Amino acid sequence: MKIVAGMFKHETNSFSPVPTRWKDFGPDGPLYGADAYRAFRHSGYSLSGLLDIAEEMGAEVTVPIAARCLPSGPVERDAFERLSDILCEAALGCDAMMLDLHGAMVAEGFPDGEGELLRRIRAARPGLPIGVSVDSHANFSDQFMNNCSVMPGYRTYPHTDMPETGRKAGRLLRDVLEGRLNPVTVAARVPMMPDMVKCLTDREPMSRLIAAADAAEAAGMPCMTVFTGFPLADTEDTCMTVVATANGDAEAARAAAQAIADLAWSLREDFRSAPFEPLAESMERAAAMEGPVILADFSDNCHSGGTMDSMAVVAAALERGLDGILAGPICDPQAVAEMIAAGVGATVTLDIGGKMPIPALKEPLVPLRLTGTVRTIALGRFTVEGPIFTGMPVDLGRCVVLDAGRVTLVVSEGRVEALDPLQYRIFGLEPTRYRYIVLKSKTNHRPAFLPLARGHVDCTGPGVATLDLLSLDYRHVRRPIFPLDRSNA
Ligand SMILES: [Zn+2]
């Protein structure tokens, strides 16, 4: 038995103008063969669990490619074609395939990236048994469903069961290969885009859907997944989808999936967050707190496709009269070049941020004009010390520290989410000496930065990583959909 295992994962923020290139799918592009196997064999990824089962089966296993990239804009056509060519070619010489895919990939020309990939593989090898481990944020399509054998998704968010889901996909595929499972899959769409924070699986309302899926499997359904969807990928498949795989009995799958879909729909108001707080009110709350206070500008974090050049939170802080603000890194290569040309010690007046056009935002990002002194010019290189992303190399390119009175800014050529206070300390800036720290992050800053702060305020600024779906200009999602069409969905 020859099994090909592989990974091609991207959660695409289709509103993001940040490009997703071939070289972004790994340290220097994707990993191949033995390198891919070594990197992921014993890892926290689904590929690790898929390989557990393939090796348990005594199969001859090859891993032609492993490619993963943080969320960003649509995958460039060239990268998509090259990756899918490698997997299609590998499919020719095997008896079965095991894939670690996300399910919310948008490629240039192919809004349903994984569906197109699987369609091509099956076109090259009709009927090839394929087991896929899928992220629960998948925008699940019929094309995906119709071109693979089994497709379990994660049960947890935050995702702590990736290897386990890989093993589940592997075991289901083994059942297919050994004739115990005749998989018949049915998907029930729920016409809503739930708020991502309401999809945390250890609390209501999402915990109720997970419990229902667990109960269906305990009652004998081979596989039942609730895909919450990824609302920042604007495609016609974007929504919550309940997917059931039965053993030969399509009607049983349909009934079980629809029952959970109906439950989800009845809970739709619970899948909405409270109205988002205007920035002026967030600044009012921050002003009343003891410092240091973290102002988390989550809508602009690059781990969700953010451009990291929104100045809205800094502008709101200055407007409120806040003092002692440390902010950045703000990604603005043009401002970096201007300040380097001026030199250390120079007084400059310039526009910072708001330079990348983002047509999808109803309220555009705008630059902030600041006057200040260029304090430091340096390369922004360091290695994350943890406690999360430990050992990850960071390269922000050339950076400039601008002292603009009430605010001190780090302006960079590159982007990184706020993972480590080193992003300030390497420039001689000690974050605990400031009263306010503006970070571009939703959750990943917490382990390293919360111990430094006394207060924390989530700030709903504009940006492509926003949780406020009503601020985005949706063009492709099937309408009506909740909450965009609240009244008639
Ligand atoms: Zn996910």
TrEMBL record:
Keywords: Hydrolase, Metal-binding, Metalloprotease, Protease. Its cofactor is Zn(2+). Pfam families: DUF1485, MlrC_C. One of its GO terms (biological process) is proteolysis. Residues 2-286 form the Microcystin LR degradation protein MlrC N-terminal domain. Binds 1 zinc ion per subunit. InterPro entries: MlrC, MlrC_C, MlrC_N. The keyword Metal-binding applies. GO terms for molecular function: metal ion binding; metallopeptidase activity. Signal peptide: none annotated. Residues 295-476 form the Microcystin LR degradation protein MlrC C-terminal domain. Belongs to the peptidase M81 family. Involved in peptidolytic degradation of cyclic heptapeptide hepatotoxin microcystin (MC). This is Microcystinase C. The lineage of its organism: Bacteria, Pseudomonadati, Pseudomonadota, Alphaproteobacteria, Acetobacterales.
